[in-house]
Specification:
Largest sheet: 3 strands, antiparallel
Shape: globular
Structural class: mainly alpha
Helix content: 55-70%
Mean pLDDT: 88
Strand order of the largest sheet: 1-2-3
Number of helices: 19
């Protein structure tokens, strides 16, 4: 069943092709219910989540639930807010009614076409299109495979199902490792190496980490010689490939390696080459991070130009709808701002980073992620 899609900027909730406008507290209430789908939340929990710095009463919760129910009434065949007497409220997703199967569902050629469309949007960093396809899969007549079913909440920033979901650890570990590294890069090495050594991930994701992700992880671990050797080998292979789709991804790493070492001259020499590459391969996700890195380079000598490039990069990452990459872009800007002493950059992005961490619940989930990794990998 398609989830309710929330647009924080417009304060709307959309299900299938119908959107409803919500007041600020109604939006926060629905967001809280959706992040705890199927769980009963007490009035106290809802007050803490939606009215943390205020002093409302239980009646406030009841009134807002009543109004929210009315606004979502058109979707009652799919979603309902239940009253659990003496306990609170919960948002439930109803099972889709049985009916005739979609006429295209059994067509292998159609499934192949849809998979190609998904892969193309994934490559170009178009999370908006990718998520739209995933959420309308039943309407479009194809079924998401398990890796894609896990990728969708990862991209949306709904990390709780990846941590507490029913999928086997081996299918979730790729995402758990990335989330852990995103928040605690200095501590992730034993887990990443153990997962690779034991081949815990599906073959495609194992290769993704071993061949492509490992170079930026090595940089984060301070192992710069190994990172450079791996990165240059991957770069040579990408250039030789008939369709060098990895080049923008690797180019960003080749730009950041000297930046992390404080070699601003070396990074500047690579900048023009990578700008030309990004024009050739307009992959939104990689373009966003590149603009952030370029802005950091520029900020040292031309703060106004640098700030504009960082702003554009963060806006591009927001548009991509790849929430982990947006968080990474924010943390990248803030990391260099802290290292170089740029309080204006810190002031500009620290609040957004903290809000994103709160929205995704990643800080609260981190102890559970670490416990899972320790249980299975040490």
């Amino acid at each position: 069943m398609s989830p309710i899609e929330l647009d924080r900027d417009a304060r709307t909730a959309r299900y299938r092709d119908e959107a409803v406008s919500l007041l600020p507290k109604e939006f926060q209430l629905l967001d809280t219910f959706q992040r705890h789908l199927g769980r009963t939340l007490s009035r106290e929990q809802l007050l803490d989540a939606v009215w943390p710095l205020e002093s409302p009463t239980d009646r406030t919760v009841d009134d807002h639930v009543y109004r929210l129910r009315k606004k979502l009434s058109a979707w009652r065949d799919a979603y309902v807010i239940r009253t659990v007497r003496g306990a609170g409220y919960r948002l439930e997703a109803k099972a889709a009614p049985a009916g005739r199967p979609h006429p295209l569902a059994a067509d292998p050629a159609h499934a192949e076409r849809m998979r190609g469309l998904i892969d193309a949007n994934l490559l170009y960093g178009r999370g908006d299109a990718l998520l739209a396809l995933a959420k309308q899969s039943d309407v479009l007549g194809f079924e998401l495979d398990e890796p894609m079913r896990l990728l969708v909440p990862f991209l949306e920033g709904r990390f709780r199902p990846l941590v507490h979901g029913d999928a086997p650890f081996g299918t979730r570990v790729y995402y758990l490792l990335h989330l852990y590294h995103l928040m605690k890069p200095e501590a992730s090495r034993p887990f990443v190496e153990a997962a690779l050594r034991r081949r815990m991930m599906p073959a495609m994701l194992h290769d993704e980490v071993e061949r492509h992700n490992m170079s930026f992880m090595l940089m984060d671990w301070g192992d710069f010689d190994a990172a450079e050797a791996m990165l240059e080998a991957a770069w040579a292979n990408a250039i030789a490939a008939p369709e060098p789709n990895l080049m923008p991804y690797l180019a960003n790493q080749r730009l950041e390696l000297p930046m992390k070492l404080g070699d601003w001259t070396g990074a500047g020499e690579r900048l023009a080459e990578i700008e030309r590459l990004m024009e050739k391969y307009p992959f939104q996700r990689e373009e966003g991070l590149f603009l952030v890195l370029r802005g950091v380079l520029q900020y040292r000598e031309r703060p106004r130009d640098g700030a504009a490039s960082i702003d554009l990069g963060i806006a591009t990452l927001r548009r991509s709808r790849f929430v982990p990459h947006l968080l990474d872009g924010l943390q990248t800007a803030l990391r260099y701002a802290a290292r170089e002493g740029w309080p204006e950059v810190t002031d500009r992005y620290a609040t957004e980073r903290e809000r994103l961490i709160a929205d995704t619940e990643i800080a609260g989930l981190l102890p559970y992620i670490e416990a899972e990794l320790r249980k299975h990998l040490t």
